[in-house]
């Protein structure tokens, strides 16, 4: 486009936008005026105001793309997939799921549908704000997870429309490979097996954590530390092994156990206590040289702010399916960078969640490691592969994956529920 053409284009666009803005202001004034005159129904309620925004039609010059349908599907073992359809023949995929609440999240998606249908899928940040703030009750596990899945799908669509991976749109790539870690429980043989498969980073659990009690016996602490020592011996000093307390250990027990684990240098101590106990977690962090990690049950930038301000953790584990999606985790990563903290996305979910995490890893400087429990076999046309501890950054557009919809048909529907544990001596509720 030449200078003259560009000036003409800008003038026409500005005129169109100016007219649209004037019309919009008039419409707002009329709406606000009419709002108070709307009749009340028999329950004393006025019909809620459903304004539209001129952002929906901006910029006026480009091709129109519209969201036409939101489709959710329960996918084994315990996931919820979202397929966002458009009139451009492109679909976007997301995982709007909070573990154990798949059908609740599906209902939350249905309630977002009336806002999104007919909207331009490229206005990701605008829709994020609208869905988050118009809910009035902000955040929480269900609404944040639903929003996260929508956000992933919109980024997938935007990348596919432009023919580039999401990390390109976020200023990347910042790396070519993404380190991933595997779960090994407290099983040295499983660690060796995963190491043979190509993994170099692992995550362990605390043995018998549901029996830790409020003040653990020396035998419990020794058993848990010995189990980690056995993993270290099986893997050797060249591998990295984090350990997840799952927030199920009491603060005094966490301190006792961390001291016993220090000689084996875990990669991190995850959720040493519940994430709401920010001051206690910060106190634990100050009492050890081991890195403290947390974040899987923390939502949005507002949730992570206090963790960083109080230096309760140096490894943040936002979940791409809970924390607010790709848009929000990119912002959380920037906040973390300012505090010299790193990002290790939580992901016990499916391959779309993994793909979203990999896009984040490929677009931030402070990435540590990506959790995974499934590399996409049986779900993706080309599953991820681990070599030397890493998966390659994908080059396909959007989230960089292709869902194998034929294979998916054999994984539909599930009735997965979260675990229930009780103290074996007195029957009281315990965490797991
Ligand atoms: Mg965890």
Order of helices and strands: HEEEHHHHEHEHEHEHEHEHEHEEH
What general form does the structure show? globular
CATH architectural group of one domain? Alpha-Beta Barrel
Q: Would you report the number of β strands? A: 12
- Our count of helices gives 13
Q: Could you list the spans in which at least 5 consecutive residues all have pLDDT below 50?
A: none
- Quickly name the level 1 CATH class of one domain: Alpha Beta
Describe the largest sheet.
9 strands, mixed
Bound molecules: magnesium ion
Rg, nearest Å = 24 Å
Strand content: 5-15%
At CATH level 3, the topology of one domain is: TIM Barrel
Based on helices, strands and strand pairing, what is the structural class? alpha/beta
Helix content: 25-40%
Overall average residue pLDDT: 94
Distance between the termini: 62 Å
């Amino acid at each position: 486009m030449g200078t003259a053409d560009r000036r003409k284009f800008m003038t026409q666009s500005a005129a169109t936008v100016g007219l649209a803005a004037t019309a919009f202001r008039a419409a707002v004034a009329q709406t606000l005026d009419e709002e108070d005159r709307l009749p009340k129904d028999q329950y004393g309620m006025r019909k809620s105001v459903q304004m539209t925004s001129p952002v929906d039609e901006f910029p006026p010059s480009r091709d129109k793309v519209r969201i036409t349908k939101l489709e959710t599907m329960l996918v084994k073992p315990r996931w919820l997939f979202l397929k966002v359809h458009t009139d451009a023949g492109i679909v976007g995929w997301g995982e709007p799921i909070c573990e154990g609440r798949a059908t609740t999240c599906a209902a939350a998606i249905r309630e977002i549908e009336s806002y999104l249908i007919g909207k331009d899928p490229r206005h990701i940040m605008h829709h994020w704000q609208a869905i988050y703030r118009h809910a009035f009750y902000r955040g929480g596990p269900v609404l944040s997870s639903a929003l996260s899945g929508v956000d992933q799908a919109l980024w997938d669509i935007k990348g596919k429309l432009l023919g580039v991976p999401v990390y390109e749109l976020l200023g990347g790539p910042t790396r070519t490979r993404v380190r991933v870690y595997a779960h090994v429980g407290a099983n040295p043989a499983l660690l060796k097996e995963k190491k043979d498969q190509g993994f170099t980073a692992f995550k362990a659990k605390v043995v018998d954590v549901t029996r830790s009690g409020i003040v653990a016996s020396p035998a419990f602490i020794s058993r848990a530390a010995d189990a980690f020592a056995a993993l270290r011996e099986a893997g050797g000093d060249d591998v990295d092994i984090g350990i997840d307390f799952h927030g199920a250990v009491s603060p005094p027990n966490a301190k006792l156990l961390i001291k016993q684990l220090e000689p084996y240098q875990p990669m991190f101590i995850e959720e040493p206590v519940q994430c709401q106990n920010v001051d206690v977690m910060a106190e634990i962090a100050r009492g050890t040289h081991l890195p403290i990690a947390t974040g899987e049950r923390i939502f949005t930038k507002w949730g992570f702010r206090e963790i960083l301000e109080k230096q309760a953790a140096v490894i943040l584990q936002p979940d791409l399916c809970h924390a607010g999606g790709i848009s929000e985790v990119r912002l959380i990563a920037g906040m973390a960078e300012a505090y010299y903290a790193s990002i290790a996305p939580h992901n016990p979910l499916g391959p779309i969640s993994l793909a979203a995490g990999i896009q984040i890893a490929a677009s931030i400087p402070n990435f540590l490691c990506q959790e995974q429990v499934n590399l996409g076999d049986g779900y993706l046309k080309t599953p991820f592969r681990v070599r030397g501890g890493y998966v390659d950054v994908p080059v396909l557009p959007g989230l960089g994956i292709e869902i194998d919809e034929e294979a998916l048909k054999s994984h539909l529907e599930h009735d997965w529920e979260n675990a229930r544990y009780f103290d074996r001596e007195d029957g009281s509720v315990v965490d797991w």
